[in-house]
Amino acid sequence: MSFGAPRGYGLSTGVYLVVASMVGAGILTSSGYTLRETGNPWSLLGLWAVGGFMALAGAMTVAEMASMLPHVGGDYLFAREAFGRGAGVVVGWATFVLGFAAPTAVIARLASSYLLGGLAGDWQPFAEPAMAVFLIGACAAAHALGRGESAGAQAWTTVAKLVILSALVIIGFAAGNGDWDHYSRGGWPPAGEWPVLAGSLVYVG
Predict the structure, then answer these.
(1) What is the C-alpha to C-alpha distance for residues 126 and 129, in angstroms, rounded to an integer?
(2) Which DSSP symbol is given to 6?
(3) Which DSSP symbol is given to 181?
(4) Looking at residue 2, what is its pLDDT?
(5) What is the pTM of this model?
């Protein structure tokens, strides 16, 4: 089935969606795991450079396939046309569960953990899941209101995220106790770091 309805989402909404998908709780969390295991800042920077190249290659590949098969279906459609209907069904469900539902739950839980991190009490173990459910429900409601409301919510939340992260960077440079000499501790990763970096690439990608 080809696109018959008018497209209400423009280029700007697509840009906001991609930026919001790439810049989020995952960056703030996975980077800490990598540094904890390696203690090598250059390994972390190199890892994100490799991840960025892989993301660019994947985006260009998907764009090429979408231009050749301009129909509804996304990954399901590509897998079905290449490997058959059975493979398409498997890829479609894997994308739904592993590509969208699971990351949404993880990001909501991480966001809740950051929001409630300074609180304490017997109710805290229940507060984080409740907050995560609320965040998911709020996002779903905003996108269910209509095309315009969905695009507006995506734009404002993305801009707010970029403003907050930019403010954190500026405050860190202006009032932080960082030291550029920390980068002198790193270098080309030794053999023991490669397994850690390979696992961390999953989070980056």
Answers:
(1) 6
(2) P
(3) G
(4) 45
(5) 0.71
